[in-house]
Design goal:
Blueprint lengths: L4 E4 L4 E4 L7 E6 L10 H20 L2 E8 L4 H10 L3 H18 L7 E4 L4 H13 L3 E4 L2 E4 L15 H7 L14 E6 L13 E3 L3 H11 L3 E7 L3 H16 L5 E7 L2 E3 L2 E2 L10 H7 L2 H8 L8 E3 L2 H29 L5 E4 L5 E4 L2 H11 L8 H14 L4 H22 L5 H18 L12 H19 L3 H13 L2 E6 L2 E6 L2
Parallel strand pairs: 3-4, 3-10, 4-5, 10-11, 12-14
Antiparallel strand pairs: 1-2, 6-7, 7-8, 8-9, 12-13, 15-16, 17-18
Helix pairs in contact: 2-3, 4-6, 4-7, 6-7, 9-10, 10-13, 10-14, 11-14, 12-13, 12-14, 13-14, 15-16
The protein binds one RNA strand through helix 5, strand 8, helix 7, strand 13 and helix 10.
Length: about 500
RNA sequence: GCCGAGGUGGCAGAACGGCUAAUGCGGCAGACUGCAGAUCUGCUUUCCGGGGGUUCAACUCCCUCCCUCGGCUCCA
């Protein structure tokens, strides 16, 4: 299997992925706290790990991708109070809306979203274990993790306990033995609460991640992902909790941290009032354009959102690829004499039913003998896979695709109709990869059948062609403008008029 | 102050110890077109935060400084 190298925060180097039990790869990513509607920074995180999971599957790994949902926490309670609503309604509504956005964005690689409140029993059990093993203590209705019992605390983020103590702010919670100790369980008398051996209360901030991960993935798993701002203290706490509770180390073999989405140089955050709503953005641009933008910087680099112009640039860039892919598909459809799904002659006696382009391109090499002349796309696909295998270098993979776009245009121009089926199949491959792993193009079928629309547009284009024949260019331009206003762009070419839906 | 990430052409953003530093967007010119668009060709491009050092050779390795962003724990 292809070697995949990933930057591991633990150690700070690129390391080869060596799953604990190949071909399985277990992956945990810190999900959202649904206390407010999501912004596009949340989408960056989701898309980064969506690409990770999809790429690893593409390589051949069986990825189990788990994400938690912190559906009870201080911020949710505060929102509930402010808005005069039930905390549960707040978190569920925001989470549902997040999921709808994820669906639009083709973020469909997560196997399971685990809600904190569905794992209260497991959380209590883990806290109890930590107390039994001497890593935690109950105090004043709360339970705290005793950081001094875990020498490796700070190893992930390079923080040293002594330095932390020097920087600790004045107010120290009197229930804590040491200022760095963090709450595993918080006593609660009035708000939402569950009963526990230490009285009624609710989980601390970090514990649900380890209770969920250890219960579902086991004491050790392959990849842990999350935002850089969570490295300390959240991920340190996770390591301290899980490794102390299970006695197994390391909790995760590879720790991935993605960088922040900035708003004109500043972190996107509520207090600065510079949050860009995910829903609102998805009403302005296509999901593919947003994905393209959010993937336009490497995941470990900060990405700056400069407003409308950032999305506009992404839209224009992606359009270049969309145009060539649309041409290629049209040519393939024409050459193959139909669209998918369709029957394909496999051998003299056997036919198979092919649902879409991606099935077709897998099939074609089995029908035709391999000929390097007809495999231009295979080479580009390989380049893209190589780039992605190097710490998910999406931008580099995209650069290959752009270079390839020119090549495809030239080929279609010079010998479009004479391209052989196996050549076309190869040319399509890089675009299918970009669809399935990067999500640059909608999958076939996801946007519904366009057959009725296509028929209508063809009719209008015919009317315009007649106007052009009579040199009635005013009418021809009027039709073109009207279609454009309806979101359909048409282009006259030597071989008739093409049309596409503007993204 | 401490820890971490980043500073590349008009803009966005890659790579690699060594051919003219990718790719995209934008701009200009030409080809094509009734026009437009798409596409193609050329130009915009001698851009690697500053300063040291290692090396035959550094954007790439080391030191140092500057700037930007994030974190420094339940708390306003």
């Amino acid at each position: 299997m292809r070697e995949v190298r990933i930057h591991n925060t633990l150690g700070g180097h690129l390391v080869p992925l060596r799953p604990l039990s190949p071909p399985r790869v277990s992956m945990f990513v810190c999900g959202i706290t649904p206390y407010k509607p999501s912004h596009i920074g949340h989408a960056r995180a989701a898309i980064v790990y969506d690409v990770v999971a999809k790429f690893l599957r593409r390589v051949g790994y069986h990825v189990f991708y788990l994400q938690n949902v912190t559906d009870i926490d201080d911020k949710i309670l505060r929102t509930a109070t402010e808005e005069g609503r039930d905390w549960h309604t707040v978190s569920e509504e925001n989470f549902e809306s997040y999921l709808r956005a994820m669906q639009l964005l083709h973020v469909d690689s997560v196997n399971f979203y685990a809600r904190c409140t569905d794992y209260i029993a497991e959380i209590i059990e883990q806290v109890r274990t930590l107390i039994e093993k001497g890593h935690a203590y109950a105090s004043g209705g709360d339970v705290y993790y005793d950081v001094d019992t875990f020498p490796a605390f700070g190893a992930l983020s390079g923080q040293r306990l002594e330095m932390l103590e020097a920087g600790v702010r004045v107010e120290v919670n009197p229930n804590k033995r040491s200022p760095e100790d963090f709450a595993l369980w918080k006593g609660e008398k009035l708000g939402p609460r569950w009963s526990s051996p230490w009285g009624e209360g609710r989980p601390g901030w970090h514990i649900e991640d380890t209770a969920i991960a250890v219960n579902i993935l086991g004491p050790r798993y392959d990849i842990h992902g999350g935002g850089m701002e969570l490295k300390f203290p959240h991920h340190e706490a996770e390591i301290a909790q899980a490794e102390a509770a299970t006695g197994k180390s390391p909790l995760a073999s590879i720790w991935m941290h993605h960088n922040m989405l900035n708003m004109r140089g500043e972190k996107m955050s509520k207090s600065l009032g510079n949050v860009v709503s995910l829903d609102a953005t998805l009403r302005r641009v296509s999901p593919e354009v947003l994905r393209y933008f959010l993937l336009s910087a490497h995941y470990r680099s900060p990405l700056d959102y400069a407003g409308e112009e950032s999305l506009e640039e992404a839209r224009r860039s992606l359009q270049t690829l969309q145009v060539v892919y649309a041409r290629l598909r049209a040519q393939a459809g024409e050459s193959l004499g139909g669209t998918f799904p369709r029957e394909v002659q496999l051998t003299a006696g056997s036919r198979v039913y092919v649902r879409d382009l991606s099935e077709w391109i897998e099939l074609v090499p089995r029908i035709y003998p391999a000929d390097p002349e007809h495999q231009r796309g295979d080479r580009v696909e390989e380049d893209m896979m190589t780039a992605l295998a190097n710490d998910f270098s999406v931008r580099e993979a995209t650069a290959s695709l752009f270079s390839f776009a020119s090549e495809v245009h030239a080929l279609l121009e010079s010998r479009g109709p004479s391209l052989r089926e196996e050549e076309l199949a190869s040319l399509v491959r890089p675009f299918v990869l970009a669809t399935e792993v990067l999500g640059y193009f909608p999958r076939e079928g996801t946007s519904g059948s366009n057959a009725p629309l296509a028929a209508a547009v063809e009719l209008v284009i015919e009317a315009r062609a007649r106007a052009k024949e009579h040199k009635d260019f005013a009418e021809a331009d009027r039709i073109r403008k009207a279609l454009s206003e309806a979101g359909i762009e048409i282009e006259d070419t030597g071989r008739g008029t093409r049309w596409r839906i503007r993204s």
